[in-house]
Write the structure tokens for this entry.
Amino acid sequence: MLEEVAKTSAAKAALSGSFERFGRMARRLHVLADEEILKVQGFAAPCACKPGCDHCCRGLVTATLPELSAIVTEVESWPAARRANLDVRIREYQSQASLYWTGERLALKADCPFLDQGRCSIYDLRPLHCRSKSSYSADACRRQLEDPEVEVQGVSGQSEVCIELVEGTLRGFQEADRPTGTYELAPALQHFLGGRPGLPRRFEVRPARQCDARLRADLKEIRLKAVILFDAHEGEIAEPLNSLFRLDLPMVYSSADHAEACWTALKSQVERLLETEQEPDLAFQALVYAAKDVKSLLERLMEHVYRKFACKAFPQFTGPLDQKRKPGPFRLGYLSTRLIGYNGSRWALGWLANHGPDIETYALNASPTEDAVSLRWRRLADHYYRLPFAAAESAELVRSLDLDALIFTDVGEDGLTLQLSLMRLARWQLGGWGRVVTSGSPQIDFYLSSADMEPEDGDSHYTERLVRLPGSGQCLYPEPVAPTTKPREDLAVPDRPFVFVGQNPSKLHPSRDALYREISERSGKVVVICSHPSNSEAGELVRSRMSRAGVDVHLLPRMPLPEYLAVARLADAVLDSFDFSGGMTTVQLLTAGIPVVSYPGPFMRGRMAIPFLRQARLDSLIAGSEEEFVDLACDSDRIKDAAETPHPEGLFRDLKPVRALDEFLLNLPGSS
């Protein structure tokens, strides 16, 4: 309820583009938050918070863009002397906070610039981050300042109120296709008050400074970037693997020839990289869309980075663990830079919630922010840690936990997990479903996959040893969303029959366009595709490419999930994407009782929908060939017959994969 209110309000404000309106919206949400918090506190014992109690004002404070707008407007009205005093405090904060961002401290200990003699000087405008705080013990808050692991018990439900409002604000801006995020309060305020253009950013993208000239000259379709991973302030971290340059494939190809040319160029540049002393960033975020076997390329690159750079940069962490195992239960960690509302990691919550009593769990969150999903990780794990944003310090902390096994939920999707995956942080290290191809790292021992997703030759696609867990390999819980009741004319769909390919357009490889042309010609129906969730140009590029290939195609704008499901229900057929199929998207469709036609690809990432269709008793919608896929797509009656007895409940609460995982882990050498 609160999230929807915030989303609606934020979307309207975002579309207006008015900084002043952003501020007014934030004030309204603050009033709503205060009202709801009073209700929550009315059912709880009195908390210890009072004026002058400022322990929670001495750390990281984040704010949404509307909240920043309200604060900036207020500060701009202050007298010059008061503004000058605030500028001094911001610089003092930045100086202290830099010790955290560069990894010299494990916790951010710095006075909020608005803290004035123990009181907040913008109390009525304090962000939702601050409004979420409460405590039954001022002493516990004081001790937490010295030891971040001290637990502070807050009023149950208070933080959830604020998390819902923040999440709704972010969703509203996303659905309005406007920049969004949460920002560190002090540097963001400095950014706006200093009149800098654009938005403050946590992750800076800059030109490569040490790029080989041959690479720069030859890279045409492949983009070359330098990523400063955690440059929150002016300086950058002086670690050999923190400033890297990235070879990245395009997210969308203009034709099959273009796709093949990019792949050929990528392999050529990899060969040159292996001959140089340059440091490649292997966070290949678009590599999974290449419809190629990437094992050989990643294996060679990761071995190169491991030998040439990781072993030299982190010799204390790349060697084997030599300490004797501490007694006690099996210690299992989950690590990601995104233990937040992100499909690449949240799938693992079902495992975390259902491990047996012999396994002690550790959630290791390296995300710069937390949200409602982070709260679930915190509650479900036996231990929860926020990792410092630097590889060496994170590695030291994780190693100190003496983990028997460590699961990287989405290894290689970003620079930090790439670096950590090249180290030995636990006795056994495993990759999982959030990274749908091999990591290539010589330090990752196993890849946890699904027996029903993997092809017969799946073992040959990984540098890791493949573990096939039963069924989908997942233990999911239903998160039902009702389709919107908006009329058809409000959903931007064609006014004639259509088939719906509701996947990220980056998954629609040009080599398959001819099949969509055949479907549209045989059925006489429009092929409807979706816009990219974060790249508005990608959908239009695919629409234009398909149109040139003779497909009768229609592009839908970005839409929230309730509208997406309503569009899917109106379609005569919902088609899975080839080569990189739908995973959690398929689950959402099947949960809503909407059947999906799929054709298994040659790699796991092209077969993700298969176990979910089987669990929903829709095996007859799994095509055995491209020809059968086209036949099914053109036969809406056959699809309806297959879906007469839907069984979405079969998708959920499957404990067999978790039990199999527990058995596998507990039988690893040295686990007891």
Q: What stands out?
A: Residues 19-41 form the longest helix (23 residues). Residues 36 and 161 are 7 Å apart (CA to CA). Confidence is low (pLDDT under 50) at residues 201-247, 278-284. The radius of gyration is 26 Å.
